[in-house]
């Protein structure tokens, strides 16, 4: 064979490789050979509308029927020609049950299967609500299919009004098959109630900018290139942040000045609109003792903002474990900026890090080298002087919850209830500073009950039982009292 022919063959092989890589990166422009869905989201008033989503392998117009009785679906709507179908039903009655069917054979359900949903209550402080907060999902192989299936089934049985999710729904946002793994299971919990997700780093990926996430979940984004959004339902306001809209920054967030300003606008509006409960959902951990180092820059931007608007709780994921922190900005005598006012109330921070994804114990949480975190400057309110601090984050030890389990826990206190200074017990020197309470490496989800005066957050194992640590000594259930907010 001549050298000329060999060069052509090598060139063809290289070209094929490049085309395969491009095809995988841009899959929604090419092939998505499944019909998936349906799942619900909110784009408009949750009391008066619902948006139903599904995907078809072929680009086409697709039909949906709906009505107020399971036996009669007299209304019909046809989606625009696309693979990503979204139909918004509007002018619905508040607090009422409706039924719908998609005229497609879907990967999980046959054509004509009837689903139901319930519209939200109007803006009232007396109406109870319950929602689930779920963490990283990332179905990728048989063990994670099983854990995802178990969690989705359990969450559906809890019958929440809606579900929030902290990002990393998929293992790799650029690959069709990973979206299919997720979207085939999603209807188990999201065909009958809205699913509201934040963008994770696994949806974003380096050059991708979460385009597929925004196609799959067309929430009411306030900007074209950012995945932040927010929702008001009843007396609850929830803001979803996109920590990666500024581009790739390793395992840390990179948030644009635009989104930082939008967050303050969004929270201020919620306070002025008299939202009685305000929650923030984002993927990037505000605090963590997990595999990756704390994102000091994002945390130190966020803490004064959350304190100023006195929000109730923050939910995040990314570290595939559960952790709880209670922190009141400035209560320990330090603020980040000289003119900051100390917070009026505690804020609860929950890492709900795995509702199906591989646990942190599968990664380097036991083996990473101690991280010396980025140096930070805090202002001492008593001495009125700045101090430079640097914290250290150590790996976890294998303190099993029980002899037979693969669940590991961290309780950072001595028997006398003071913070343990031994790094073998307390895995980070930020624990005392930021009010670390408890951590456990286990599959879990959070349940948030809201009534007219209080909010209860409880954390649950996949079988629905309360997460309560070794010998039941750390029950994870907390009552948050309603705050009086002023600007
Ligand atoms: Fe993740
Ligand atoms: Fe992540």
Explain what this protein looks like in three dimensions.
This protein has helices spanning 3-25, 142-158, 176-185, 187-190, 201-204, 211-216, 257-272, 296-308, 430-434; strands at residues 36-41, 50-60, 63-67, 75-78, 82-89, 97-102, 114-118, 129-134, 162-165, 195-197, 229-233, 236-240, 277-281, 313-316, 322-327, 334-335, 347-352, 371-372, 376-380, 385-389, 392-393, 408-410, 436-441, 445-450, 454-460, 477-481. The protein has 487 residues and is an alpha+beta fold. The protein has 2 domains: 36-118, Immunoglobulin-like (Sandwich); 129-481, Metallo-dependent phosphatases (Purple Acid Phosphatase, chain A, domain 2). An 8-stranded mixed sheet has the order 11-12-13-14-17-15-23-22. It is globular, with a radius of gyration of 23 Å. The mean pLDDT is 92.
Largest sheet: 8 strands, mixed
Strand order of the largest sheet: 11-12-13-14-17-15-23-22
Helix count from the secondary structure assignment = 9
**SS elements, strand count:** 26
Distance between the termini: 79 Å
Total count of domains: 2
Helix content: 10-25%
Could you tell me the strand content as a percent range?
Answer: 25-35%
What is the CATH top level name of the largest domain?
Answer: Alpha Beta
The CATH architecture of the largest domain:
4-Layer Sandwich
Shape by Cα distribution: globular
Rg of Cα set = 23 Å
């Amino acid at each position: 064979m001549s050298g000329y022919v060999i060069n052509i063959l090598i060139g063809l092989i290289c070209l094929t490789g490049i085309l395969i890589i491009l095809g995988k990166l841009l899959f929604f422009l090419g092939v998505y050979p499944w019909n998936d869905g349906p799942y619900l989201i909110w784009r408009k008033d949750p009391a008066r509308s619902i948006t139903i989503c599904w995907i078809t392998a072929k680009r086409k117009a697709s039909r949906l029927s709906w009505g107020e009785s399971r036996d009669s679906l007299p209304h019909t709507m046809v989606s625009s020609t696309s693979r990503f179908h979204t139909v918004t039903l509007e002018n619905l009655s508040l607090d009422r049950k409706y039924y719908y069917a998609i005229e497609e054979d879907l990967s999980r359900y046959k054509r004509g299967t009837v689903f139901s949903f319930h519209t939200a209550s109007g803006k009232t402080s007396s109406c109870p609500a319950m929602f689930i907060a779920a963490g990283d999902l990332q179905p990728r192989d048989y063990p994670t299919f099983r854990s995802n299936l178990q969690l989705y089934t359990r969450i559906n049985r809890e019958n929440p009004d809606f579900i929030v999710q902290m990002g990393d729904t998929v293992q790799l946002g650029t690959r069709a098959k990973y979206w299919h793994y997720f979207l085939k299971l999603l209807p188990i919990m999201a065909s009958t109630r809205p699913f509201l997700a934040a963008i994770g780093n696994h949806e974003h990926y380096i050059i991708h900018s979460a385009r597929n996430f925004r196609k799959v979940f067309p929430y009411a984004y306030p900007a074209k290139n950012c995945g932040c959004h927010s929702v008001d339902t009843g007396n609850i306001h929830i803001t979803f942040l996109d920590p990666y809209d500024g581009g790739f920054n390793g395992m840390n967030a990179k948030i644009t000045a635009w989104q930082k300003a939008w967050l303050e606008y969004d929270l201020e509006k919620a306070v002025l609109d008299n939202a009685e409960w305000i929650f923030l959902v984002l993927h990037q951990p505000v605090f963590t003792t997990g595999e990756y180092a704390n994102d000091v820059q994002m945390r130190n931007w966020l803490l004064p903002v959350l304190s100023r608007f006195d929000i109730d709780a923050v939910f995040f994921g990314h570290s595939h474990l559960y952790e709880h922190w209670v922190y009141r900005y400035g209560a320990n005598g330090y603020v980040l900026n000289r003119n900051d006012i100390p917070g009026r109330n505690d804020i609860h921070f929950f890492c709900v890090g795995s509702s199906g994804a591989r646990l942190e114990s599968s990664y380097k949480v036991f083996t990473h080298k101690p991280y010396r975190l980025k140096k930070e400057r805090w202002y001492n309110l008593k001495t009125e002087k700045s101090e430079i601090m640097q914290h250290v984050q150590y790996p976890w030890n294998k303190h099993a919850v029980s002899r037979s389990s693969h669940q590991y826990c961290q309780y950072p206190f001595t028997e006398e209830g003071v913070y343990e200074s031994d790094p073998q017990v307390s895995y980070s020197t930020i624990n005392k500073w930021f009010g670390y309470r408890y951590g456990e490496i286990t599959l879990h989800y959070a349940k948030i009950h809201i009534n007219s005066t209080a909010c209860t957050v409880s954390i649950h194992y996949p079988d629905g039982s309360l997460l309560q640590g070794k010998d039941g000594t750390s029950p994870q259930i907390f009552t948050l009292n309603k705050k009086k907010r002023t600007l």
